[in-house]
Amino acid sequence: MPVPTDPLLAADDDARVLARTLLSRARHASLAVTDAQSHTPGISLIAFGLDPDGAPLTLVSGLAPHMAALRAHPEAAVMVGSPGAKGDPLTHPRLMIRVRAELIPRGTPEHGELRTHWLGLHPKAKLYVDFADFAFARLTPVSAILNGGFGRAWRMGPDDLRPA
Amino acid sequence: MPVPTDPLLAADDDARVLARTLLSRARHASLAVTDAQSHTPGISLIAFGLDPDGAPLTLVSGLAPHMAALRAHPEAAVMVGSPGAKGDPLTHPRLMIRVRAELIPRGTPEHGELRTHWLGLHPKAKLYVDFADFAFARLTPVSAILNGGFGRAWRMGPDDLRPA
């Protein structure tokens, strides 16, 4: 049997609904970056939410290695969809998105809007959101793969991930 | 107050115990790679376990994008320690390890030993472990950061992660 050159399916409406549901429910995510010093992959757990336009957003401490990484290399990847405590973790659906990160300067009107929106998603972030070294990073999708957790995976573009 | 240049602590025995506990309990992990085609970060959910010597190990399908990535760029990073369903996900401890991946050829004695060991950790993998495109990848630690989930983080070396 020949090995298919691309085992991924084209996005359809069911896949889009699943991808958008994973995105809208996620409050944390895994972030892959290129480390600023070693230039090799780095990985971090990040707080996660969607901005008012439905774009992935995170709040990062300036002391976190991934802040330096995103400043040096804005290309990154983010994964949402946590395995539950039971069953085979690889059967749980997850969405992997290539993104380009953009840091939002503090003191701008945009920062103020995102701050209010973020505290609605993450009320406990009020403890640190105003620390001088924290900043929002918008993670604009470039492309994505949705793994349905049952041997089916779909290629997606930015439009497939936007709220309908 | 001056910003410390390195906010990370040196590893101590309590941190080593926590890191080794996270590693020995993990049955899945997040893997950051450098994509073979785009040369930008990629991220995947992987099955995870320790080999008989305590080194991180995964079983990968040849159809997975991260298999091609690891072949092109063996430097990667892996994160273990899943947030639970409740509470602030960022308060859960997690271990982030820079690794160098090494694929184990099928048909070698080492593959046979790892296969038996892996099926003890992941009994359901018997459904696909013998598929021709699946291979084990050993993820040898280069360095690590343990985030205790309560504002304390430690730098670690490979020796800190080995079973005592």
Question: Can you offer a commentary on this structure?
Answer:
The structure is a homodimer of 164-residue chains. By secondary structure, chain A is an alpha+beta fold. Chain A has a single domain (27-82, 93-158), classed as Electron Transport, Fmn-binding Protein, Chain A (Pnp Oxidase, Chain A). In chain A, 23% of the residues lie in helices and 36% in strands. Chain A is built from four helices and nine strands; from the N terminus they run E-H-E-E-E-E-H-E-E-H-E-E-H. Chain A has helices at 13-25, 65-72, 109-121, 158-161; strands at 9-10, 28-34, 41-47, 49-50, 56-61, 75-80, 94-104, 134-147, 153-156. In chain A, strands 1, 2, 3, 4, 5, 6, 7, 8 and 9 form a nine-stranded mixed beta sheet that branches. The longest helix of chain A has 13 residues, at 13-25. The radius of gyration of chain A is 17 Å and the shape is globular. The first copy, chain A, starts with 8 loop residues before the first strand and ends with a helix. The mean pLDDT of chain A is 91.
Helix content of chain A: 10-25%
Strand proportion of chain A, as a percent range, falls in 35-45%
Q: How confident overall, as mean pLDDT of chain A? A: 91
Write down the CATH class of chain A: Mainly Beta
Instruction: Calculate the terminal CA-CA distance of chain A, rounded to whole Å.
Output: 39 Å
Helix-strand pattern of chain A, N to C? EHEEEEHEEHEEH
Count of discrete structural domains of chain A = 1
Number of strands of chain A: 9
CATH architecture level-2 label of chain A:
Roll
GO cellular component, one term (chains A, B): cytoplasm
